[in-house]
Amino acid sequence: MTRPRPPLAPGAAGDIPEAPLVGGTPMQKSLDANLRFGFLVHDVSRLRRIVVDRALKPLGITRSQWWVLAFLSRRDGMTQTALAADLDLTKVAIGGLVDRMEAAGFVERRADERDARARRVYLTRAGQRLVATIRENVDAVETDIVNAISDEELDEAGRVLGKIKARLLELVGNEAEGAGDLEG
Q: Which of 46, 48, 26 is nearest to 38 (CA)?
């Protein structure tokens, strides 16, 4: 199904020049186009967060809290250290965040069975119910966000961003182990 596509605003992605061809193969993309692409990805991500934050505000949770819940819904029982790394937070910051979420009844800490120093974080039933509510709200927002994009365009964008992510993970190496497990 193809949905109507709104015209691009000046300076939007459609204005990024394609790499010129030399002998049938593209020359290196210009630095300007690469930078504009990076800023566009950043702006889309930032604006999406703002829209999702607004949709979740009535639930009374912060962005940091819903990110913790999202990661735990994919990998329940993560260590606090793994959560801190995946959320790009310090161990102290994740400790305080988990303290507040535990006090609210959304998560619980348990000692790691194999490493007495490690603490694992698990969703409680209330946390699981909140994740289900969050998913309903976010699904409605995500549907609205991509409404003007055809399925084919969305699939292609996903493939391109997947390739970029794979390359970035190669460049980062083991530092990003497990990062971004929210896909799929």
A: 46
H or E element in which residue 41 lies: helix 31-56
Domains and CATH numbers, the chain: 31-171 (1.10.10.10)
Query: What's the pLDDT tens digit per position in 116-146?
Result: 888 899 999 999 999 999 999 899 999 999 9
DSSP 166-178: HHHHHHHGGGGTT
Residue 25's DSSP bridge partners are: 22
Question: 123 near 131, Cβ under 8 Å?
Answer: yes
* Cα gap 107→47, rounded to integer Å: 28
Burial level of 7, CB count in 10 A (0-12/13-18/19+)? exposed
* Mean pLDDT rounded to a whole number for the chain: 83
Q: Are 126 and 106 in contact (CB under 8 A)?
A: yes
Distance CA 157, CA 162 (A): 8
Angle among Cα 131, 84, 140 to the nearest 5 degrees reads 25
151-171: b or e for each residue (b if 16 or more CB lie within 10 Å)? eeeeeeeeeeeeeeeeeeeee
Determine the Cα–Cα distance for residues 133 and 89; give it in Å rounded to an integer.
25
Average pLDDT over residues 56-82: 92
Amino acid at 121: V
